[in-house]
TrEMBL record:
Entries under NCBIfam families matching the protein: rodA_shape
Pfam families cross-referenced by the UniProt entry: FTSW_RODA_SPOVE
Localization annotation: Cell inner membrane; Membrane
GO biological process terms on file: cell division; cell wall organization; peptidoglycan biosynthetic process; regulation of cell shape
Topological type in the membrane: Multi-pass membrane protein
Name this polypeptide is given: Peptidoglycan glycosyltransferase MrdB
Catalytic activity line of the entry: [GlcNAc-(1->4)-Mur2Ac(oyl-L-Ala-gamma-D-Glu-L-Lys-D-Ala-D-Ala)](n)-di-trans,octa-cis-undecaprenyl diphosphate + beta-D-GlcNAc-(1->4)-Mur2Ac(oyl-L-Ala-gamma-D-Glu-L-Lys-D-Ala-D-Ala)-di-trans,octa-cis-undecaprenyl diphosphate = [GlcNAc-(1->4)-Mur2Ac(oyl-L-Ala-gamma-D-Glu-L-Lys-D-Ala-D-Ala)](n+1)-di-trans,octa-cis-undecaprenyl diphosphate + di-trans,octa-cis-undecaprenyl diphosphate + H(+)
Gene name, Swiss-Prot/TrEMBL: mrdB
Length: 374
C-alpha cells in the first residue's frame, strides 16, 4: 500500500490545465506531421514517441523541488557548454552547419539545451538576490548568456543564437535591469550592427534578410520558400483544404514542411479555423505561465514562470513571422507542434519546472491549511 501512496503522490496537485493544453498542442502536432509527410506513418509514430517521452519527463520534472533545481542549474549550464564545445569539434555537419551530436543510436542538438540551461541558471542565480542587480551579478549573467550564444553562433545557427541570447536577456530584464543599462545596450547594438552585418553574418544569412525587405528580388531563389509558404497560408481560406489535401505540401513545394514550415501546412489544410484554435491554445498556455508567476511564493519561481511565458511567446512569434514572410528564415520550429525530439523534450522540461511551481504552491497552501485547522 505504501508504494501505491508514493505513486499517487507524484500525480497529486498537478496543473491539469497546463497538461491539457500541452497535450492538445502535441496532438495537433502529430496530426500535422502526418499530413506534412504525406501520410508517412513512420514520422507520425516517432512524433507520438517524442510526445509520450516528453510528457513523461514533464511529470517527473514537475516533482522536483526548488532547492534541487537551484543546485543543478550551474552544473546543467556547464554540461550544456561542454556539449556545445563537443558539437563544434566533433559534431555532425549537414547542409553546411554543424549542429548535431551523434550518439550512434540517435543524434540531438545541444543548442536546444542551451535555450533551457541559460534561463534556468539565471533564474536560479538572480532569484537569490534580494536587491537590484549589482555589476558583479550583471557581469556573471552576461558571461552565462554570451558563452553559449557564441558557441551556437559558430555552428552556424543564427536563429538559435538569437533565441538563446533573448532567453537570457529576458530573465536579466525581469530581475530588475535598469533602464539606463538597457538604453546603453540598445545604442551599443545599433553601433555594432553594421560590423556584425559585414563580418559576423554569412552570405546566405544576409540574403535572407534582404529577401524580407524585397521579397520579389529573387522569387525563384532566396525568396522561393517564403513565397510558397505565403501561398499555402493564403490559400487555406476559412475552413482549409482538408488533411492531406494541401497542394503546396503534398506536391512538395514547401521545404521542411514537418519542421520549420509546419504552420504553413496547418494554415493551408485547416484554414483560419485551425489557425484560430492553434493560437487560442498558445495564448492560454502563455497566459497560464504568467498567472503562475503571480501565485509563486519565491523570487526564483516568479522569474522562471514569467520569463518562460515571454520566451515561449518569442518562439511562436519568430516561427509564424518567419513562414509568413515578416521575419528572415532562421530555422526555428513551431514549439510543441513541429517534428523534433530534442526541441519537444526540452520544452517539456521547461513546462515541468513551471508545473512544479504550481505543485509546490499548492503543497504550501495545503500545509498552511492543515496547520491552521490542526
Amino acid at each position: 500500500m505504501n508504494w501505491l501512496q508514493k505513486y499517487l503522490k507524484v500525480f497529486a496537485n498537478l496543473d491539469l490545465l497546463t497538461i491539457f493544453i500541452i497535450t492538445a498542442l502535441a496532438s495537433y502536432g502529430v496530426l500535422m506531421v502526418f499530413s506534412a509527410t504525406s501520410g508517412d506513418v513512420g514520422y507520425m509514430d516517432r512524433k507520438i514517441l517524442q510526445v509520450a517521452l516528453g510528457l513523461g519527463v514533464m511529470l517527473i520534472v514537475a516533482n522536483i523541488k526548488y532547492s534541487y533545481v537551484q543546485s543543478l542549474a550551474l552544473p546543467f549550464l556547464i554540461f550544456t557548454v561542454f556539449l556545445l564545445v563537443c558539437t563544434v569539434l566533433f559534431g555532425v555537419t549537414s547542409k553546411g552547419a554543424t549542429r548535431w551530436l551523434n550518439l550512434g543510436f540517435t543524434r540531438f542538438q545541444p543548442s536546444e539545451f542551451a535555450k533551457l540551461a541559460v534561463p534556468i541558471y539565471l533564474c536560479s542565480f538572480l532569484g537569490q538576490l534580494d536587491s537590484k542587480l549589482s555589476w558583479p551579478a550583471l557581469i556573471i549573467s552576461g558571461v552565462a548568456v554570451a558563452v553559449p550564444s557564441a558557441l551556437v553562433l559558430v555552428q552556424p545557427d543564427l536563429g538559435t543564437t538569437i533565441l538563446v541570447a533573448l532567453s537570457g536577456l529576458i530573465v536579466i530584464f525581469l530581475a530588475g535591469l535598469s533602464w539606463r543599462i538597457i538604453i546603453l545596450g540598445v545604442i551599443f547594438v545599433l553601433i555594432m550592427a553594421p560590423l556584425f552585418w559585414e563580418y559576423g553574418m554569412h552570405d546566405y544569412q544576409r540574403t535572407r534578410v534582404l529577401t524580407i525587405l524585397n521579397p520579389d528580388s529573387d522569387p525563384l531563389g532566396a525568396g522561393y520558400h517564403v513565397n510558397q509558404s505565403k501561398i499555402a497560408i493564403g490559400s487555406g481560406g476559412v475552413s482549409g483544404k482538408g488533411i492531406l489535401q494541401g497542394t503546396q505540401v503534398q506536391l512538395n513545394f514547401l521545404p521542411e514542411a514537418h519542421t520549420d514550415f509546419i504552420f504553413s501546412v496547418l494554415a493551408e489544410e485547416l484554414g483560419l479555423f485551425g489557425v484560430t484554435v492553434l493560437f487560442s491554445l498558445f495564448f492560454l498556455l502563455i497566459l497560464r505561465m504568467f498567472w503562475l508567476a503571480t501565485i509563486a511564493t519565491n523570487r526564483m519561481a516568479k522569474l522562471l514562470c514569467a520569463s518562460q511565458g515571454f520566451i515561449f511567446s518569442i518562439y511562436v512569434i519568430v516561427n509564424v513571422g518567419m513562414v509568413s514572410g515578416l521575419l528572415p528564415v532562421v530555422g526555428v520550429p513551431l514549439p510543441l507542434v513541429s517534428y523534433g525530439g530534442t526541441s519537444f523534450i526540452t520544452l517539456c522540461i521547461t513546462f515541468g519546472l513551471v508545473m512544479g511551481v504550481f505543485k509546490q504552491t499548492q503543497r504550501e497552501k495545503n500545509s498552511f491549511k492543515n496547520s491552521v485547522t490542526g
